């Protein structure tokens, strides 16, 4: 990690880097006055108005998104005359610390040219009114945005193949650098372009009214959000990942490493090609993949033992928190059946790949590089 002194120096270098010559400086500054001072909101988010400035260089055009870390703003860069996305982190110590980790990770990723096509590119960072602001290239919507817009209809298998290949290439690159992303999910996978086409979707009713769904014109994607990324050698927190993409070894308190990213990739691919609290999540795993291995249950942490009864049986449905939770699990089919309904001619290869990614035992899962060599990615007919 960098010292606070080197970070300060880096910030000073960035703030001054690429400054326009004196004859242009007045043009940049014109209309670029700082906004009035405002207190942050009660959650530590930066309070802003559209059209005002985020320091003298960037004009705020829109809010692109919001998360636990802060907000992402679309801005106009007066110096480069380009649109950028700026992650404005909440003015709370743990989120500021996570932002500095993300900057360190992005710098490490950027040391190799492969990074440019796999992960979002950082253009710089600065500290503004106690908010770490990270400047990124502006990308398109997330895969989650597309799923939601299409009412969670599955993507065509050809797109799933392209998304899966690029995602695994990104993960393989990170793992080569001994980095574990820990928060892979459709929200953190962005399309490079916002352009899309409309195609006929499912029939809505007996009058044959057809839904249309949107598909991206380009399948190019990039991985984002490295604030939770862990170095292989560092001490790992007990809980990582968003619940629906969380590997069983994390839930059971068995420790985790690179294979937890692989499990998340498998969950993402299932979500892309098919249409809750921890106990429900474990019940979903068993419904789709079969019983959790007894040796994993026996080694589970004391806090995870509450999910089981009589030693090796999941406390389900007895332990369910609601009837809706039980119904949600009952709706699930076996993995091969989930895929078979949606993947057509590629279903056998895709199902085999998913079984390799979603092994309960972390040591038995495919590595990212092994997954890239799977026949599913060679089967393009």
From TrEMBL:
Listed EC numbers: 2.7.12.1
Record-level Gene Ontology MF annotations: ATP binding; protein serine/threonine kinase activity; protein serine/threonine/tyrosine kinase activity
UniProt entry keywords in alphabetical sequence: ATP-binding, Kinase, Nucleotide-binding, Serine/threonine-protein kinase, Transferase
Compositional bias of kind Basic residues: 1-10
Domain Protein kinase: 58-377
Class of enzymatic activity (EC top level): transferase
Region annotated Disordered, chain positions: 1-37
Signal peptide stretch: none
Domain of life: Eukaryota
Any one GO CC term of the record: nucleus
Descriptive protein name: dual-specificity kinase
Organism for this UniProt entry: Leersia perrieri
């Amino acid at each position: 990690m960098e010292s606070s002194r080197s970070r300060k120096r880096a910030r000073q270098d960035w703030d001054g880097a690429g400054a326009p010559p004196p004859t242009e400086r007045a043009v940049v500054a014109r209309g670029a006055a700082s906004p009035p001072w405002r207190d942050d909101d009660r959650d530590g988010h930066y309070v802003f108005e559209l059209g005002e400035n985020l320091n003298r260089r960037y004009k705020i055009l829109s809010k692109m998104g919001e998360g636990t870390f802060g907000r992402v703003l679309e801005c106009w860069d007066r110096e480069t005359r380009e649109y950028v996305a700026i992650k404005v982190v909440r003015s709370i110590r743990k989120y500021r610390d996570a932002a500095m980790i993300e900057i360190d990770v992005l710098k490490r990723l950027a040391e190799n040219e492969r990074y440019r096509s796999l992960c979002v590119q950082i253009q710089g960072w600065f500290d503004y009114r106690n908010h770490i602001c990270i400047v990124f290239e502006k990308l398109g919507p997330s895969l989650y945005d597309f799923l939601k817009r299409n009412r969670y209809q599955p993507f065509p298998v050809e797109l799933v193949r392209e998304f899966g290949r690029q995602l695994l290439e990104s993960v393989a690159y990170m793992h080569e650098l001994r980095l574990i992303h820990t928060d892979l999910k459709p929200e953190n996978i962005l399309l490079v372009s916002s352009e899309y086409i409309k195609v006929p979707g499912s029939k809505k009713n007996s009058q044959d009214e057809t839904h249309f769904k949107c598909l991206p014109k380009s399948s190019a994607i990039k991985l984002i959000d490295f604030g939770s990324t862990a170095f292989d050698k560092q001490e790992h927190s007990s809980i990582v990942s968003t619940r629906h993409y969380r590997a069983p070894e994390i839930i059971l308190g068995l420790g985790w490493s690179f294979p937890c990213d692989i499990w998340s990739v498998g969950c993402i691919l299932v979500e892309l090609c098919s249409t809750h609290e921890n106990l429900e999540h474990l019940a979903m795993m068993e419904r789709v993949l079969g019983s959790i291995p007894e040796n994993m249950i026996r080694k589970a942490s004391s806090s995870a033992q509450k999910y089981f009864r009589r030693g090796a049986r999941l406390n389900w449905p007895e332990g369910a928190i609601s009837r809706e939770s039980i119904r949600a699990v009952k709706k699930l089919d076996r993995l091969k059946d989930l895929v078979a309904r949606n993947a057509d001619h590629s279903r056998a290869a895709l199902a085999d790949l998913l079984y390799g990614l979603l092994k309960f035992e972390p040591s038995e899962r495919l590595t990212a590089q092994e997954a890239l060599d799977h026949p599913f990615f060679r089967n393009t007919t």
